[in-house]
Design a protein that fits this description.
Elements lengths: L13 E3 L9 E7 L9 H15 L7 E5 L3 H13 L2 E7 L4 H9 L3 E5 L4 H16 L2 E2 L6 H18 L6 E5 L4 H13 L4 E7 L27 E5 L1 H15 L5 H14 L5 E7 L14
Parallel strand pairs: 2-10, 3-4, 3-6, 4-5, 7-8, 7-10, 8-9
Antiparallel strand pairs: 1-2
């Protein structure tokens, strides 16, 4: 029995691909991060960033918090901030799905929508201006070591445990890069031969949750030495794979998870043997107002 909603963050299940992986010598597992209470992998980072900052005294319940987000981190921060009695303002592009905006507000956060034509970079610029001019404290997931350390402490150990230390490849979309940085650090400490595969969109593609950042916006927590290989996927590939995950594997997720699964399956087709773990970072219900499943 769990006595605290925060105790339900992490320890998400691994499920084996039954249909999509057709290489009999490779096992492909999906790690279902939508089972976190806030519905995504970002619960891990949000909890660690807020809890660690409070323990250090970086801010207190009277501090005005702000963060730019494309969605999942904002939902997680809204949930965690509400539990701790903190006020938080979340900034995101106006083309975010209404489910995301409504969920953040349901948890008690204030949501500011910035012009969609400047994307998440514009939301980040807005938040930084509020810090500079209006006394806000920014969580700053893009440069906050507590982001990747959440995955070093939880995601990596869970994957190592649940594959009995036999994982050969880890596949993850790259957004803030916290998931791949922390998980890579842990897995490489256990076995330096584990291959870490990052997923980015092709140049012409827009995939929520996966970014190819301009140099000036590259997350400061990112270390390219911790990624062995980067695979690019198109917007259409990611969309179609999200649809196939739902229809054929019973895994209801967003487009970034479809992108990671596309890369994982491409990888699986090239291997003579191996055990691959691919992150399914959220649930598909927060995309129902978009055209993802039309």
């Amino acid at each position: 029995m769990s006595h605290n909603i925060l105790d339900l963050i992490g320890n998400t299940p691994l499920v084996k691909s039954r249909v999509l992986n057709t290489n009999p010598k490779v096992e492909l597992y999906f790690k279902l991060e939508g089972h976190n209470p806030g519905g995504s992998v970002k619960d891990r980072a949000a909890y660690n960033m807020i809890k660690s900052a409070l323990e250090r005294g970086d801010f207190d319940p009277n501090t005005k918090l702000i963060e730019a987000t494309s969605g999942n981190t904002g939902i997680a921060l809204a949930m965690i901030a509400g539990i701790y009695g903190l006020d938080i303002e979340l900034v995101m592009p106006e083309n975010a799905t209404k489910e995301r905006v409504q969920t953040m507000r349901a948890y008690g956060a204030k949501v500011i929508l910035t012009p969609s034509d400047v994307g998440i970079e514009g939301a980040r610029d807005y938040a930084e201006a509020k810090v500079k001019n209006d006394g806000f404290f920014m969580i700053n997931q893009f440069a906050n070591d507590d982001n990747w350390k959440a995955h070093y402490k939880t995601t990596g150990p869970e994957i190592w445990r649940d594959t009995q230390g036999e994982i050969t490849h880890f596949v993850s979309a790259m957004g803030t890069t916290g998931t791949i940085m922390g998980t890579s650090t842990y897995l490489k400490e256990q076995n330096e031969n584990v291959q870490i595969v990052g997923v980015q969109p092709t140049d012409e593609s827009s995939i929520p949750g996966i970014r190819k950042w301009p140099k000036e916006y590259l997350p400061k927590i990112f270390n390219s030495k911790k990624v062995d290989q980067t695979l690019e996927v198109s917007q259409e590939e990611a969309k179609q794979m999200a649809i196939r995950l739902a229809k054929e594997e019973g895994i209801f997720s967003g487009m970034s998870s479809g992108g990671a699964a596309t890369a994982a399956l491409r990888l699986a087709s090239t291997l003579e043997e191996g055990i691959i773990v691919s992150i399914v970072c959220d649930r598909g219900d927060r995309y129902l107002s978009s055209d993802l499943f039309d």
